[in-house]
Design brief:
It contains 14 helices and four strands. The chain has about 270 residues and is mostly helical. It is globular, with a radius of gyration of 20 Å.
Length: about 270
């Protein structure tokens, strides 16, 4: 509050505050009991990144690499407690992830921090994140069953840097022109829709990708994915078929970009699909 509203009076304390919070984030454990504290710390870092007077602290390659290694990656990596919620309380997992009730989660706060970094230095942050994403995807391809969490991280990072603005009920309307959303879908998302996955969370990731970038995918791609999505209604996993239901509903609600009075999909389109 002081940093955002009373910067002139508080500025002599800001750099010290950054150092204290940096040390906190580097030394605090990953235990669930610390989640709210970590989230608030990340929200403060996001607040500082958005102040023009402090951009220089976060605008060089070494700083971004340090932030990625020590703050972003540890806080977006799935923990055992996250997997337990997915398995034991799927309704809560869906509510937190898809409906956005996870405002105080590590993942959400780390993502917002990353997006703010990217908005202030898009070229540098995008290039560094893509190095991590490609590394994780390569590691996953070498051992899908052992490294499935790395693909989850890669997809999560890509969605964070590819989207501009918040994910709303209308999906993403603007994307980062330095990355190719369609190519990523074809190479890394589509295979998980048609084949077996090492963990159902990867299936959920692929469905959520369509949910997020439905405005960017072509009509033909969406038609092609509909039968693949509907096949998930036979899946026994609550999260998988719930994400499927929500995503199909959003796809069918799309408007024709050239005429917003018309729906994108006609009855004939759906009969073909």
């Amino acid at each position: 509050l002081y940093t955002t509203r009373y910067e002139e009076e508080f500025k002599k304390y800001i750099e010290l505050s950054i150092q204290i919070i940096w040390d906190l984030l580097n030394n605090i454990s990953i235990q669930k009991k610390n989640d709210i504290l970590v989230s608030k710390a990340l929200q403060y870092m996001t607040c500082v990144v958005n102040l023009s007077n402090y951009n220089a602290l976060f605008s060089n390659e070494d700083a971004v690499n340090q932030i990625t290694e020590k703050i972003i990656l540890p806080n977006i990596t799935l923990r055992d407690s996250d997997l337990e919620i997915f398995e034991d309380d799927p309704i809560e997992y869906t509510r937190r992830d898809l409906e956005g009730s996870d405002v105080d989660s590590r993942r959400r706060s780390a993502t917002e921090f990353l997006r703010s970094l990217k908005e202030n230095n898009e070229n540098l942050v995008t290039a560094i994140m893509m190095e991590y994403i490609n590394h994780y995807l390569k590691s996953y391809s070498e051992d899908p069953s052992g490294n499935w969490k790395l693909k989850d991280i890669a997809i999560y990072l890509f969605c964070a840097i590819a989207s501009k603005g918040s994910i709303t009920n209308s999906g993403i309307t603007s994307t980062n022109l330095l990355v190719d959303v369609i190519k990523f879908f074809t190479e890394f998302i589509y295979p998980d829709l048609v084949g077996q996955v090492a963990n159902p969370i990867l299936k959920v990731d692929s469905i959520k990708y369509i949910y997020i970038f439905r405005n960017q995918l072509t009509k033909e791609q969406l038609i092609e994915t509909l039968p693949l999505l509907t096949s998930n209604f036979n899946d026994g996993n609550y999260v998988v078929y719930t994400y499927t239901s929500v995503t199909i509903e959003k796809i069918l609600s799309l408007r024709n970009p050239s005429n917003h009075q018309e729906m994108l999909f006609s009855k004939n389109d759906l009969s073909v699909a």
